[in-house]
Design brief:
mainly alpha, Beta-Lactamase, Helix Hairpins, five-stranded antiparallel beta sheet, 20 helices, 76% helix, rod-shaped
Length: 815
């Protein structure tokens, strides 16, 4: 019964007290829930709006600073290529700045912030107009004017932009501080409110205990103890209810409330931890140190202390000069540096600093004057990043580039001394040099072999880009040189062979020309004997004329003499025909000499430059042969005329024989006939004398031909020696060209075809289509009848001369 009573509702008993307490507890829960949500909103606002805004504005200021530096470098550039590179960098920075501005727009909260941002955005085109003027002056090499505009108008404009960026940074910091203060105030109010409401609930519970102390004192005390634990900050304690009445339910609700409060507090603590982590990340990302206006160190974060190697106690109160070299701190530049900072001017760049123990340190830093509410500088904050590794890597790369420019490609950077991006950069530089050295060394090997006349080497490595083009060009050059050497060697071998053939032909021609000269000498001797015979015939005719006076007494004797005269004229006629045959042979020899000279000219043309002298000699031989042929034709005409006259003389002698039969009837007629015979004999002697002179002239021409043939032989031998020397020099080059590869070379194929056409033109009469092949012409042997021996009237030596002439004719026939 008691348990049932304990489990009864006490609404009627505690409707006034516990109802109010329950309401207060509900209010406490709602306020706690709302407060936690608002605190979370403040934290999110700080991160997503203020912190991102500060980051974007910091990046914007850095990009604007880089852009200003590029403008200065553009003014300092001395050539168009360097200025173009700076203009490209400026354009890229313009794009980056525009992107940062676009990212900042959604983060704007306050109206004043929006106005300043719009003013900043509107000032950028004005800055770009002034910058355009500066760049144009710099491009026109009006460097002084460009520098003046940059120092005045452009510096003033960029300073205004920097001020607006700094204001926006401060505004975001102010908003973050306000959000933080608002969250702090909210947390304080929430704590006080919950405390007051808890006390109210406690008092109301005490009144309820006065009514139902015996019934609910234990549970209420339990709940009170839990409330006290909650008030003391122990959110893990829970109330223990022993009944199912409203107090039990209150205990349950109280426990749920404590659970909710514990979750909210834990969430708030996590948010605070996140904020602390963000702040720590900033401290780890950058070294931060604060200086007084006199340069003394006020404070520094761990990143700065680790970078320089000091502890805060070692540097606090010390001057900034302890981080710099003595030569720099004693200079006017260092004094001007602090004067600018005291005036509120911003300074940034890469600085060389001295760490603990004299360690060399390079930092990328910015010195930022901090203003108080009155706008006066009261301290300087330095934000720095350690770039020692990058700087040392840059120095190593510069040294490597200098040695490479000097032709030494064997050096490499020791990448073990670097870390991170610097290590990757130096490793990439080493890989680049390795990629450059390999094809160069292979090309050097090929060129060394080429210098040793070895054309069998080539580049075989797998390359790309310019190195592949170099490989193709060098291999192509070696291939072309190999083809050229092969063609020259082929041509020289052909010239050598041709010169040997010309030399052999010239020697043969020289021998035959000598034989021809000897034959002409013997022919000249025979003609002298014939001339003597003809003169004797004339003397006999004179004697016959004298004897005609006594013709009557010696008619029979005159008849006998006439018979002998007829026989002698027959012999003279035969000798004249024999001379005509000899002249025909001489004409044929001149024709063959002309043909040999033509063949020699063709061979000289094949020899090119080395056969030019031989071509001149061959041309002279050809001219002499043509003159010999012309002289032979003239002599042949004279011989035919002599034969005709001898025939006329024979007819007259026959008539004189008939007349002698009638001499008895008419002596006067016989005398006239004998006189005519005497005149004809005189004319015959004159003709024979002319023939003798022509043969002597032909003999002289033949001697000249023999001399020219000897010169031709000497020239051909010289050409053969020069061709052999050229072949020796060409053979110094080592190649690996097979006959199949030669057949595939256009130059060799064209050379062989040209040689074949030249030979065919020489032997087949220059027929272009070569449709009718003919056998090459060869010298023709003379075909003559054996001459009858000459029987002179008073000189028996004539017959021996004629026999000697007949022997020489056989030698001509052999030729």
């Amino acid at each position: 019964m008691l348990n049932r009573f304990k489990n009864l509702r006490i609404k009627s008993k505690l409707v006034w007290g516990f109802g109010v307490s329950g309401l207060l507890l509900l209010i406490i829960g709602l306020m706690s829930f709302e407060g936690m949500n608002r605190l979370s909103g403040h934290t999110e606002f700080i991160y997503k709006t203020n912190l991102l805004g500060v980051t974007i504005m910091s990046d914007l200021r850095a990009q604007m600073l880089r852009r200003s530096n590029n403008v200065i470098w553009h003014i300092l550039a001395s050539d168009s290529a360097a200025m173009a590179a700076q203009e490209k960098s400026i354009a890229e920075l313009d794009k980056a700045i525009e992107d940062l501005l676009a990212k900042y727009v959604p983060l704007i909260v306050a109206e004043e912030e929006r106005k300043v941002f719009e003013k900043l955005r509107a000032g950028i085109p004005e800055y770009m107009e002034i910058r355009k003027k500066v760049l144009q002056l710099s491009k026109n090499f009006s460097k002084d004017a460009a520098a003046e505009v940059q120092k005045t108008e452009l510096a003033e404009k960029i300073g205004a932009l920097y001020d607006m960026v700094d204001w926006l940074v401060k505004e975001n910091n102010r908003q973050a501080e306000e959000s933080y203060q608002s969250g702090h105030d909210l947390s304080t109010s929430l704590n006080w409110g919950m405390g007051l409401l808890s006390i109210s609930a406690f008092l109301i519970g005490g009144i309820a205990v006065w009514f139902v102390s015996k019934l609910i004192v234990d549970n209420l005390a339990n709940v009170l103890a839990a409330a006290e634990q909650l008030q003391n900050g122990n959110l893990t304690h829970r109330a223990k209810a022993t009944t199912q009445d409203e107090i039990g339910k209150l205990s349950t609700a109280f426990n749920q409330m404590a659970e909710t409060m514990q979750n909210k507090v834990e969430q708030e603590q996590r948010s605070a931890s996140e904020m602390k982590g963000i702040t720590g990340a900033l401290n780890r990302a950058q070294a931060v140190v604060e200086f007084g206006l006199d340069g003394t160190v006020l404070t520094a974060n761990e990143n700065f202390l680790n970078t320089l190697g000091y502890s805060l106690a070692e540097i606090k109160g010390q001057h900034h000069r302890m981080f710099c070299e003595a030569a720099y701190t004693n200079s006017g530049e260092y004094m001007a540096f602090w004067q600018r900072l005291n005036r509120g001017e911003y300074d940034a760049g890469v600085y060389r600093r001295v760490g603990k123990g004299g360690k060399e340190i390079w930092i990328q830093a910015s010195y930022n004057p901090i203003l108080d509410a009155a706008g006066k500088v009261y301290k300087v904050v330095e934000f720095a990043t350690d770039v020692t590794g990058q700087k040392l890597a840059q120095n190593e790369v510069e040294k490597l580039i200098k040695t490479a420019a000097a032709g030494d490609l064997s050096n490499r950077i020791d990448i073990a001394q670097f870390e991170g991006a610097a290590k990757e950069l130096t490793a990439s530089i080493n890989q680049l040099l390795d990629a450059v050295v390999t094809p160069l060394r292979e090309a050097q090997t090929v060129l060394t072999a080429l210098a040793d006349c070895n054309l069998t080497r080539s580049m075989t490595g797998m390359y790309h880009g310019e190195f592949e083009q170099m490989k193709s060009s060098l291999n192509g050059a070696v291939h072309k040189l190999t083809e050229t050497i092969t063609v020259v060697r082929e041509a020289v071998e052909a010239v050598t062979t041709g010169s040997e053939e010309i030399s052999k032909g010239s020697e043969d021609l020289s021998q035959r020309t000598s034989e021809q000269a000897s034959s002409l000498e013997e022919t000249s001797a025979s003609m002298e004997q014939m001339t003597s015979t003809v003169k004797q015939s004339a003397d006999n005719a004179k004697q016959a004329n004298q004897l005609a006076i006594a013709a009557r007494e010696v008619a029979e004797k005159g008849g006998a003499v006439t018979v002998r005269a007829v026989e002698a004229m027959g012999e003279i006629n035969k000798s004249s025909k024999k001379i005509a045959d000899i002249i025909t042979v001489i004409d044929e020899i001149a024709f063959q000499t002309n043909l040999l000279a033509l063949n020699a000219a063709v061979e000289a043309a094949r020899a090119g430059e080395h056969g030019r002298g031989f071509a001149v000699v061959a041309s002279e031989v050809r001219n002499l042969a043509q003159r010999s042929a012309t002289a032979a034709k003239e002599i042949k005409g004279l011989i035919n005329e002599s034969i005709q006259r001898v025939m006329d003389g024979s007819e007259l002698v026959n008539q004189s024989g008939k007349t002698l039969e009638e001499i008895v009837n008419s002596v006067k007629r016989v005398t006239d006939i004998i006189a005519e015979i005497s005149a004809a004999s005189q004319e015959q002697a004159s003709g024979i004398d002319q023939v003798n002179k022509a043969i002597m002239q032909m003999d002289e021409t033949t001697q000249q031909n023999a001399a020219l043939v000897e010169q031709t032989t000497s020239a051909s031998q010289t050409m053969r020696q020069q061709a052999s020397s050229l072949l020796t020099h060409v053979s110094l080059f080592k190649t690996q060209v097979t006959e199949e590869q030669k057949a595939g070379m256009k130059a060799i194929t064209a050379h062989r075809l040209e040689t074949a056409h030249s030979i065919q033109d020489a032997y087949f009469g220059g027929d272009d289509d070569h449709s009718a092949a003919r056998k090459p012409q060869t010298p023709r042997a003379g075909v003559r009848k054996q001459p009858a021996p000459v029987r002179p009237l008073h000189s028996p030596n004539t017959l021996a001369a004629v026999k000697s002439s007949g022997k020489k004719e056989e030698e001509f026939e052999e030729f």
